[in-house]
UniProtKB/TrEMBL annotation:
SUPFAM superfamilies: SpoIIaa-like. PANTHER family: ANTI-SIGMA FACTOR ANTAGONIST TM_1081-RELATED, ANTI-SIGMA FACTOR ANTAGONIST TM_1081-RELATED-RELATED. Belongs to the anti-sigma-factor antagonist family. InterPro entries: Anti-sigma_ant, STAS_dom, STAS_dom_sf. NCBIfam families: ant_ant_sig (TIGR00377). Pfam families: STAS. This is Anti-sigma factor antagonist. Residues 19-103 form the STAS domain. It comes from Streptomyces polyasparticus.
Length: 131
């Protein structure tokens, strides 16, 4: 098992395209880091009536049950505000965890980030690359 010092430092960076916020998450999603992610999701979903949020998890090195709980919490917050939550990950272990826990159908998961049209910014202008 890895010691805590071997895990990449947790961080989130965000940027907005049209009305969609993309959050790039790095490091471990565990009981130590979830409060930071929850606070960020709370702030982002409180800022608009219909929050569209993309959580890019490609740089996540580890996820435990509290990390899965945080993703479910984010989904609930976004859905309660009539927004959309998309997850980006092609990690076989993460996808397996979603299947084994029965959460695979609860999330819209894509292998790569969406291409967001920044021209006229029509509502829900997501276009994903072919897998």
């Amino acid at each position: 098992m890895h010691e805590l010092r071997d895990h990449p430092v947790f961080s989130c960076s965000e940027h907005t395209v049209c009305d969609t916020t993309v959050v790039e998450v790095r490091g471990a999603l565990d009981i130590l880091t979830i409060p930071s992610l929850n606070a960020l999701v709370d702030r982002l979903t409180a800022a608009t009536d219909r929050p569209d949020l993309v959580l890019d998890l490609r740089a996540v090195s580890f996820i435990d049950c509290s990390g899965l709980g945080a993703l479910c919490r984010a989904r609930t917050r976004v859905n309660s505000r009539q927004g959309r939550l998309l997850l980006v990950s092609a990690d076989a272990w993460f996808l397996r965890i979603l299947r084994c826990t029965g959460l695979a159908r609860s999330f819209d998961v894509h292998a790569g980030p969406p291409y967001l049209q920044d021209d006229a910014c029509p509502a829900h202008s997501y276009h994903f690359a072919a897998l």
